Amino acid sequence: MEFWPLRPTTTDFRLSIEQTATLLSRTRESHGKLLAADMLKLVSAQVPLAQCTIFAYSPNRSPQVISFADRARMIELPRISSNYAERFYSMDGNQQAMTARPTLPTVDRIMVQRQGIEDITHRDYRRICYELPQISERVALLTHCDGNRWLSVNLYRGREHGRFSPNEINVIETAAPLIVQISRLHYRAYLEANEMPVLLSERVISLFPELTRRDRELLQLMLAGCEAEAISASMGIQLSSAATYIKRLYRKLGISGQRELLALATQRKWSSQVH
Q1: Full set of structural domains in the chain with CATH
Q2: Mean pLDDT of 8-17
């Protein structure tokens, strides 16, 4: 099990106009199910692969399965991905790479993590995620995103193809900037469609870490567009108390209303962090 910052490569990796257009079309949230399939097809043209999964990691929660694709392995990939996200992700080598990332130079925006079946000591993790689908090895491309989130694009090698060769690893690293950038763009669309209030509240909390748990709950509801009545019902408090809580939160944030709250959560400094 090993990981390293993305290295310079000399391999030529070119796409046709059609391939480029297809990949760019997958950045829309509605096309998420096809994204991993296109990644698998793209890399498999030069490096034989069995599966591709894309996970998003957020603080204090299990990974989210963003997209997955396989080449007719023995068991369904959705079941494998679900088991990984619910039971095994904390044992994964990706966790070591993500933990080590802050100690590395900031210019190294992509990490590569390599993990073989022999690296996995947990019996159920090895059996469900590697032995049953006949996977011998995985190379993951990891990138840090806004709000202390991570994305990982995981490329799995079938047992029939053996281990990745040095040249194949080089090909993957050459394609990594494109793969990661497309994944980032799609993830941004995913967040906007599914989790924008959560993302915006995380941004504000990073500026005001002293906010209480109750403050944070209220903040997320307000950024979701909830009025005092809905906040009262959701938080189980009186309507008058909801109005008081809202005013108190505005004071803590140094603002005077909803428009300033949205401006705080969407200020320009955030725009470079999900690229």
Answers
A1: 2-192 (3.30.450.40), 196-270 (1.10.10)
A2: 78
